[in-house]
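User: Structure tokens for both sequences below?

Assistant:
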Amino acid sequence: NPLTTVLGFLQLMKSGTFSPEKMNRFLEISMEEIRRTEQILSEYLSISKPAASLQQRLELISQMQAVVEVMTSYANMNNVALHVRCPQTPIFISGSTAELKQLLVNFIKNAIEASKDVTKGTVEISIREEPPHVVIQIEDNGIGMTEEQLNRLGSIYYSTKMNGTGLGLTFSYQAIRAMNGSVSVSSEPLSGTTFLIRLPIAEGVKG
């Protein structure tokens, strides 16, 4: 996923239509994504023997905004509109920064790819509080899934994509469980898909 992002920014930079300031920002994001590659590869390789992750207090809204900034170029490459609605006040959770960002990237990337071949492909992302949890909703108007596909989601090496490995969602489901969260999904063929990720709000921290 980071390499896909870097490729997208390189293609944008190749056009030569952006200001030096914008080009520098593209470079900064690309370098950050390349640095994440080694860590992500290690995480994927350890899926079959997950270890306890370092849990820390994270501010969810800023983490989501960082992911959306990265994924916007990928959405543009695939002619998909990416819309985000987040509360104005901070929301704190407990988890690993790297794992949180990667699972968000995985879900958003899948939603974009599911919507790229439909008319006016759209991915809607929203965050809302339902104490004691925060709910992240990722909804697309893409190709959707059958009941059989839904039942197998998150199984190791199962993917709905022709060349997919299934590791992305397997990792994401494991990371959510490690954060004491849960994930549910609703979908129908040709009617889009909605993922609901519920994570506990961190105690003792107020926005």
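Moving on to the next sequence.
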Amino acid sequence: MPAAPPFDDSKIAAIRLLQGAVYRDDGAAWELLLTHEQKLSEFFTSLRLTLVVSEADGFAFIRQMEEEELPEGYEKLPLLMRRTRLGFDATLLAVLLREELRKFDEENLDSEACVIAESELYSAFADFFAEAQDEKRLQNRFKSACSKLDEIGFIKQLTTDPPQLNVRPIIKARLTPERLRETRQQLLDHLKPNKESDDAEIVATDHEADG
């Protein structure tokens, strides 16, 4: 068995990034990421990945390089990550959350976290559907969409009473202003009469996950 190389604590941050986004409140992993940012960036580039770090907003993640970003020869590498499309409900919720974060950035300069009541977000979500919608079914759709966005790191569901959601600033990087405009239009198109929205798939943002 070959000898293991000397321990390198940058690998702790690398593994955490491969598991998902890393945030400022992740403590040691965040500090290691900042300490070894250059090394990590070079490592991920060698795997056809891009390291995105926002110190101001306190988050970092890796994404698959787009075709036009690839250095010569790197197109030969197989993809390490897969992209998961958000369905209609999760996309709608992501757009609503992105708007909440925009308002928060403009109006709450002294506060670090954007927190919204779950009931308030549900009201905004329900406004997009006809009054004839079954209330219980709509609530289940909302809960499912929340779970999906929690899973990919857009929100953190807080154990408060009443329930609240922490809107993660990473959504700004995943849902840029240009993509936000495009997605809003796609949502409006799917909400037109005679359109079935339940099974619609719209790309609000592509979430890379190890696959």
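User: Anything stand out in the second?

Assistant: The beta strands are 22-23, 49-54, 59-64, 81-84, 114-117, 155-158, 164-167, 207-210.
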